[in-house]
C-alpha cells in the first residue's frame, strides 16, 4: 500500500527478503463456520457473488452491533498475494570488516549482500506481500499494480489456506489496478463491485487484507471523505479511518451490503503505520478499468485532444460567465477536438449530455467514454453556446501537436499592467529558447508590486492571446485592454505560454 508521509505517499505492500522478515503462513480460516464455507462454495457454483442477506445488513445510519456476519460472509473471496522477483545485490553488505571470521561465515553461507567464494555478488530473490479479492467464479482477481509490478512469480493464497499460481491479465499504472487470473478445478467464491458514488461521508466500511504479512485481518471504520485526489490523472479516492497498513494494498473496502466500494491503495502517515487516514480507489473507477483489462488486456480510454484548465472566478468575470464552472480550453493540437472545430478559449460546459463542473470531472468522463465513439460537446464561445460532435480518439496512442504559422512583428516594448512586454525578435527568441516561428509578446519584466506579478506572470512568459484574440503586436494588446475597459470588464483574459505549456490568466485592467 502507499502511505503519504508529510512529503510523499508510501505503498501498503510489505516487502520481505527470503532471509529477512520471512513470509506469513496460511490465512487460518477458523473464523468462518463450516456452514458459511458451504454457502460460499454453493454461491460460487451458482455463479452468485457473496453478499449479506437483507436481515443481516444494518439499517442505514445505524451502527452495526458486530461486523462478524459480514466478515464471515465475504472473507472467502479475499486473498493474500505473494510475489517473487530477482533483485540485484546492493553494493554494501553487513558491517563486518573484510577478512574477519564473520565475513567468511556469511560469504560461505550466501548471506544477502555478501560476495560468494569467487568474489562475485549473487542475485537475490525477494518476496513482497499484498492483498486482493476474487471477482468471478472462474478465477479473476483484482489487486494493486504496485503489488505485482516487476514480479517473476505470483502466488495466490486463499482464505481456506490453499494456494494457486496466478498470471497477469493486464495492468493500469494510472489507477494502480492489476487484474490477475488463476486456474481452479472448483468454482471460486467471489464478491461484486458496488456503486461507490452512493457511499456517503460517515457510512460504515470494512477493510479486509493481509497487513504486515500477518495473515487475514479485518478492520472497520467510516468513509471520512470522498473524491480525494492524490497524484494521478484519474484519481478518485474514498478516504477512510479503517486501519490500513502495509500489506493491505489491493484488498477490498466493503460497505455493509458486502459490496466492494473501494480498493485499498494508500495511507497518509509520518511513520509508515496507520494513523487513521487511508485511501481506497473508488469502485466505479476500478470496475471500468477491470472490464477493459478483462476484455482487451489493456485500457482503451477516450481522448478528446485538448489542454484544459479550471475556470477561476476572475476568468468567469472576464468572459461574462454566470459561474466559474466548466473547463477552459487552452490549446487544441491536432486531434479529435480540432477536427470537430474546437478552439482555444472555448469553455466546455457539457460532455456527452452531462454538465461539466471542472477539468477533473471532464478528464474522468472522457477517459471512461469508449474510443471511437461520437459524442456531443457543448462549448461557450464569445458568449454563445455551440454544440460540436467529436469522435473520440484513443488516449494510449494519441500523438501530434500544432505549429503556429510564421508572422512578422515590429520590434518594440512597452510598460502595461505592471509589466514590460516586447515583440519577439530573433535575439529574444534565441535568448528564451523559443522557436524561430514563435509569435506573441514576451514579458520582459514585472513590477513585484504590480497586478501582473500578483497574478503569477513572470519574465519569459509568452502572451499569445488577449481577450480571446491573437496578439502579435503591442497595439493589439493595448486594443484588447481598452476594449475590456470600455465593456465594463474588471479583467482581460490572457493566454500565455510558459516553457511551451499554455495557461489562461485573467489580468485586472482598472486604471
UniProtKB/TrEMBL annotation:
Signal peptide: 1-29
UniProt-annotated binding residues for substrate: 146, 176, 247-249
Enzyme class: hydrolase
Domain PDZ: 293-383, 421-499
Cellular location(s): Periplasm
One Gene Ontology MF term: serine-type endopeptidase activity
Catalytic residues (positions): 146 (charge relay system), 176 (charge relay system), 249 (charge relay system)
Keyword Signal included in the entry's annotation: yes
Region described as Disordered: spans on this chain: 30-59
One annotated GO biological process: proteolysis
SMART domains found in the cross-reference section: PDZ
Alphabetized PANTHER family for the sequence: PERIPLASMIC SERINE ENDOPROTEASE DEGP-LIKE-RELATED, SERINE PROTEASE FAMILY S1C HTRA-RELATED
One cellular component (GO) term of this entry: periplasmic space
Skewed-composition ranges (Polar residues): 30-57
Family assignment from sequence similarity: Belongs to the peptidase S1C family.
Naturally occurring in which organism (per UniProt): Paracoccus homiensis
Catalytic activity: Acts on substrates that are at least partially unfolded. The cleavage site P1 residue is normally between a pair of hydrophobic residues, such as Val-|-Val
Pfam families: PDZ_2 (PF13180), PDZ_6 (PF17820), Trypsin_2 (PF13365)
UniProt-listed NCBIfam families: degP_htrA_DO (TIGR02037)
EC identifiers of the protein: 3.4.21.107
Keywords of the record: Hydrolase, Periplasm, Protease, Repeat, Serine protease, Signal, Stress response
Protein name (record): Probable periplasmic serine endoprotease DegP-like
Amino acid at each position: 500500500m502507499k502511505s503519504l508521509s508529510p512529503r510523499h505517499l508510501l505503498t501498503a505492500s510489505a516487502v520481505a527478503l527470503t532471509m529477512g522478515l520471512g513470509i506469513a503462513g496460511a490465512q487460518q480460516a477458523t473464523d468462518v463456520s463450516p456452514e458459511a464455507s458451504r454457502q460460499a462454495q454453493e454461491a460460487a457454483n451458482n455463479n452468485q457473488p457473496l453478499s449479506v442477506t437483507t436481515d443481516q445488513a444494518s439499517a442505514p445510519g445505524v451502527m452495526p452491533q458486530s461486523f462478524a456476519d459480514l466478515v464471515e460472509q465475504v472473507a472467502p473471496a479475499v486473498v493474500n498475494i505473494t510475489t517473487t522477483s530477482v533483485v540485484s545485490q546492493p553494493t554494501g553488505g553487513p558491517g563486518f570488516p573484510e577478512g574477519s571470521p564473520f565475513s567468511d561465515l556469511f560469504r560461505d553461507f550466501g548471506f544477502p549482500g555478501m560476495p560468494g567464494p569467487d568474489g562475485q555478488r549473487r542475485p537475490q530473490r525477494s518476496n513482497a506481500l499484498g492483498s486482493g479479492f476474487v471477482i468471478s467464479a472462474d478465477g479473476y482477481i483484482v489487486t494493486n499494480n504496485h503489488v505485482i509490478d516487476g514480479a517473476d512469480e505470483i502466488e495466490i493464497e486463499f482464505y481456506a489456506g490453499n494456494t494457486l499460481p496466478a498470471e497477469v491479465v493486464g495492468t493500469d499504472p494510472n489507477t494502480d489496478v492489476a487484474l490477475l487470473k488463476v486456474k481452479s478445478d472448483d468454482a471460486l467464491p467471489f464478491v461484486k463491485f458496488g456503486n461507490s458514488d452512493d457511499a456517503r461521508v460517515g457510512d460504515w466500511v470494512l477493510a479486509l487484507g493481509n497487513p504486515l504479512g500477518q495473515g487475514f485481518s479485518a478492520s472497520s471504520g467510516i468513509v471520512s471523505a470522498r473524491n480525494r485526489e492524490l497524484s494521478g490523472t484519474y484519481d478518485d479516492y474514498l478516504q477512510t479511518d479503517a486501519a490500513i497498513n502495509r500489506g493491505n494494498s489491493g484488498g477490498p473496502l466493503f460497505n455493509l451490503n458486502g459490496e466492494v466500494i473501494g480498493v485499498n491503495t494508500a495511507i497518509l502517515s509520518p511513520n509508515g503505520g496507520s494513523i487513521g487516514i487511508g485511501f481506497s480507489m473508488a469502485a466505479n473507477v476500478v470496475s471500468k478499468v477491470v472490464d477493459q483489462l478483462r476484455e482487451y488486456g489493456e485500457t482503451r480510454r477516450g481522448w478528446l485532444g485538448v489542454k484544459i484548465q479550471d475556470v477561476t472566478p476572475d476568468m468567469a468575470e472576464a468572459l461574462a460567465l454566470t459561474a466559474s464552472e466548466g473547463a477552459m480550453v487552452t490549446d487544441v493540437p491536432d486531434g479529435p477536438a480540432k477536427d470537430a472545430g474546437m478552439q482555444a478559449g472555448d469553455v466546455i460546459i457539457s460532455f456527452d449530455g452531462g454538465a461539466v463542473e471542472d477539468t477533473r470531472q471532464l478528464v474522468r468522463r472522457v477517459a471512461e467514454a469508449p474510443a471511437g465513439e461520437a459524442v456531443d460537446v457543448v462549448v461557450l464561445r464569445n458568449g454563445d453556446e455551440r454544440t460540436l460532435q467529436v469522435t473520440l480518439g484513443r488516449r494510449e496512442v494519441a500523438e501530434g501537436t500544432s505549429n503556429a504559422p510564421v508572422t512578422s512583428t515590429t520590434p518594440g516594448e512597452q510598460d502595461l499592467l505592471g509589466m514590460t512586454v516586447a515583440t519577439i525578435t530573433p535575439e529574444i527568441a534565441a535568448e528564451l529558447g523559443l522557436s524561430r516561428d514563435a509569435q506573441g509578446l514576451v514579458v520582459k519584466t514585472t513590477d513585484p508590486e504590480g497586478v501582473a506579478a500578483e497574478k503569477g506572470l513572470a519574465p519569459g512568459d509568452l502572451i499569445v492571446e488577449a481577450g480571446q484574440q491573437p496578439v502579435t503586436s503591442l497595439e493589439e494588446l493595448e486594443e484588447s485592454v481598452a476594449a475590456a475597459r470600455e465593456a465594463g470588464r474588471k479583467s482581460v483574459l490572457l493566454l500565455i505560454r510558459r516553457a511551451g505549456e499554455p495557461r489562461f490568466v485573467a489580468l485586472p485592467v482598472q486604471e
